UniProtKB/TrEMBL annotation:
Listed transmembrane segments: none
Source organism, top-level taxon: Bacteria
Gene3D superfamilies recorded: Protein of unknown function UPF0759
InterPro entries: DUF72, UPF0759_sf
The protein's name: DUF72 domain-containing protein
Provenance organism: Flagellimonas hymeniacidonis
Length: 299
């Protein structure tokens, strides 16, 4: 993921901001002793992107990937709606407990920008995506960088149309969604009232997207490493924050690791999972081909 890339990441303050005050209010009413569902994954399983991740002789990348991770942020569905047979194959190749978190097709978000023509497209998308059955996680809708609050009515109409049986997360990138307090409060209220997750994006060049406002009992986090030594302490800071949210009552953690150069995403993920297991009592598989890799050998 090139979004938010900077030439000198060492100059960026990666400190995680304080929680939005309404995040604590949202979580405070939740039961404290419920199990926390934790899913960690990469954005894709392509061998070319995840260089050196697959053992020599690997015949099926998804089969191997899903033996090492419990989820995938499925970016491929952003570019086209696949035929039904493809979803069935993905379902059949992955083990029980694995989940897909597919990206909504760009026909809805970028090409038609939530206009009145998107509903038939969204219905087609959901018809085939639903074939993932219990392996379907949260679908996420990422809006274009220049989709701004002038399109508020389109957002409201889409949110009200969206069938509630499909968990949804939304990612807004235009700065005005967050820098104008009246706009941001209206957006957060709309998402919260409709049970939609507000995506957090942790990337070097867009720190304004770290609004730290949860709108349902789900932390949907897209972490973008900078291919820099700071990537590892940044991940550990996230564990501290997620642990605090868990203690407040957070039930669902969906954390997806990107890199400007994706080949290092599994390495970061392995480090993150290992620390999660240690500090949060999780029992996630640490990708086996990466266990012996020391993070500081990357840089």
């Amino acid at each position: 993921m090139k979004f938010g890339k900077v030439d000198h990441p060492e100059l960026i303050d990666f400190t995680i901001p304080k929680d939005h005050p309404d995040t604590q209010i949202l979580l405070s009413g939740r039961p404290k002793n419920k199990k926390t569902n934790v899913y960690v994954g990469c954005a894709k399983w392509n061998r070319q992107d995840l260089k050196n991740f697959y053992p020599r002789g690997t015949k099926d990348e998804l089969v191997y990937y899903s033996s090492q991770f419990n989820s995938i942020e499925l970016n491929a569905t952003f570019y086209r709606i696949f035929p039904a047979e493809q979803y069935q194959k993905w379902y059949d190749k992955t083990p029980e407990g694995f989940k897909f978190f597919p990206k909504m097709t760009n026909e809805v978000s970028h090409l038609r920008r939530l206009n009145d023509k998107v509903y038939e497209i969204a219905d087609r998308y959901l018809e085939v995506t639903s074939l993932l059955k219990e392996k379907l996680g949260t679908i996420f809708l990422q809006m274009h960088n220049n989709f701004n609050p002038k399109n508020w009515d389109r957002v409201v109409q889409f949110v009200e149309y969206w069938p509630k049986e499909f968990p949804l997360a939304m990612e807004f990138r235009h700065t005005d969604w967050f820098t104008d307090e009246k706009v941001s409060q209206e957006l957060y209220h709309l998402l919260e009232e409709n049970g939609i997750a507000n995506v957090l994006v942790d990337t070097a060049g867009r720190r304004d997207l770290m609004h730290m406002r949860l709108t349902n009992n789900e932390a949907f986090i897209r972490y973008v490493g900078a291919n820099h030594a700071s990537d590892y302490p940044r991940l550990e800071d996230w564990i501290t924050r997620l642990l605090a949210w868990k203690q407040m009552g957070l039930e669902n953690i969906h954390f997806f690791v990107h890199q400007n150069l994706e080949l290092e995403s599994p390495l970061l993920s392995a480090h993150f999972i290992k620390k999660l297991n240690e500090q949060m009592g999780c029992n996630l598989t640490i990708p086996s081909t990466l266990v012996k890799t020391k993070p500081n050998t990357l840089f």
